[in-house]
Amino acid sequence: MTAEAMPVELLLRNLKLRPSMFFLDGSFAQYVAFLSGFDASSRATEFPLLDGFAEWISAHTRSGQNLTWPTLVLRSIWPEWNGSASDWSKLDLISEKHAVRALFELLATYKQIDPGTLHLATDGTS
């Protein structure tokens, strides 16, 4: 495990398991806002959080390179997704859980973190 991996792994684990610790309600939209802000602030460091994530997920999902990473996350679940940021708040409870789970699965894969560390059950229950 690299020096960079542990803090990112810990951050993602705490975000997933304790969103209220970061004043989040656990919704996809709030995770996107938090991660975007954290990424912007981490760009001043050696290890920006989401550096290259949009390009990686675009290749991973075989979707348009002109799309934002949150849209690409949603397209990884629903390839026909064409919604805007305002549509994230319209996700029903089940869709919201799928979106959050996909977000953390993709981030774990991108950051080469074992999804089990983030308590992402392989049976689709978390």
Descriptive report:
The chain has helices spanning 5-17, 28-42, 53-61, 69-77, 85-88, 93-110. It is built from six helices and no strands. The chain is globular, with a radius of gyration of 14 Å. It is 54% helix and 0% strand. By secondary structure, it is mainly alpha-helical.
By DSSP, the count of extended strands is 0
Q: What string gives the helices and strands in order?
A: HHHHHH
What gross morphology would you assign? globular
| Main beta-sheet strand count, sense and barrel state | none
Summing up helix and strand content along with how strands pair, one would put the structural category as: mainly alpha
Spatial extent as radius of gyration: 14 Å
Give the N-terminus to C-terminus distance in angstroms.
Answer: 25 Å
Mean pLDDT: 83
Low-pLDDT ranges = 1-6, 122-126
Helix content: 40-55%
**Strand proportion:** under 5%
The number of helices is: 6
Structure summary:
This protein is an all-alpha fold. Helix content is 54%, strand content 0%. It is built from 6 helices and no strands.
